[in-house]
Amino acid sequence: MLVLVLGADGYIGFPYLIGLCSRNHDVIGVDNLKRRTLVSKVGGKSVTRIYEPYERERAVNEYFNGEYRFVFGDVTDYHFLYCLIKTEEPDAIVNLAQIPSAPYSMRDIRCATETVINNELGTLNLLFALKNIDKTIPVVQLATLGEYGYVNWGELPEGFMEIEYKGRKDVVPVPKQPSSFYHCSKVNMTTFTIFATSIWDLKFTEIYQGVVYGVSLFEEIDQRLYTRFDIDADGFGTVINRFTAQAVINHPLTVYGKGFQKRGYLSIKDSIQALTLAIEKPPKENYRAINQFSETFRLNELAEIVKNVAKELGYNIEIEHLPNPRVEVEDEHEYNPVNKTLKELGFKQTQSIEDEIRETIQIIEQFKHRIRRELLIPKITWC
């Protein structure tokens, strides 16, 4: 199968395409390298060393049977995307080409606009290109559990729910409560996609993914196969990755606010597994929604887990609560998303979160000299 991966230079995109090549799929990876530019813009850099795209391409082709080809390009350029799909005729497409940072989108008007235009225009271009070229190509597109925001009704369905109002029933998309302009852009991506699949008979799976953490499967093979590992609090570092970076430099683990915020989480290995299942097992329906996570935790629970694993490895660190830079519900609340579809596809958690954190700490220890303390404390606020 020839898979077109949009966003191939990202934290998830690069190890995901390696995983596809390891399963004998051929991959065309597309990226405009914006993630590298934006991380630098907020003063950060990947803790792991990341090689240039064509050096990565050579490394993938040295070790795996599937053929990988990197193409520099921007999904917000409709002509580029249309010509690529028309010429290459992929069997499937994976759309990971989004700016994935809530703090960055809240930085200022320019960053908010950049995030919205990139994410929404890229999605519109893909929808129209498929309409005009081939409506049957299955697409897996990355959404986020963060679209749902704060919910306090208990079980969180996948994509849609049945409601009753004044004696009448209907099935509607689950209400969205975005908590940043980034999340707003993802909500609009979902709205565009549900609408387009309903009128043009396109085939989309949207992945409502939880927070991803950890390191990928391929570091031990060759350092050129490292994925990026960002830890900056004002840009692209996710919470567990930030905690592990803080642990290896003996910095307190910084919990925002009361720490009762509850979210879904999965390792990058499990993200790769789940995305692979989604592309290899396309849906029969036009639109399929999948809640993608392994476990749910509160921030306080995560901090304790990282603290305990770090202690086993010889690090004695404390937990520190900071004023929350975000506007979000911090009190204890019910948050129970379901992931029935993912399990039906055959998903199984690769390893425990403790083992994943232990492995992550052991890998990034060798790069601790690249961790800058000032990047670990948030400066961007929602108000």
CATH level-3 fold name: Rossmann fold
End-to-end Cα distance, whole Å, is 47 Å
- Give the tally of structural domains: 1
Percent range for β-strand residues: 15-25%
Written description of the protein model:
The mean pLDDT is 96. With 383 residues, this protein is of the alpha/beta class. The relative contact order is 0.16. The chain has helices spanning 13-22, 34-41, 53-63, 78-88, 102-105, 109-133, 181-200, 239-248, 268-280, 299-312, 340-344, 353-364, and strands at residues 2-6, 26-31, 68-72, 92-95, 138-144, 155-156, 160-165, 168-173, 203-209, 211-213, 253-256, 262-267, 287-292, 295-298, 319-322, 336-337. Helices cover 37% and strands 20% of the residues. It has one domain: NAD(P)-binding Rossmann-like Domain (Rossmann fold). A hairpin with a 2-residue loop joins strand 7 and strand 8. The protein is globular.
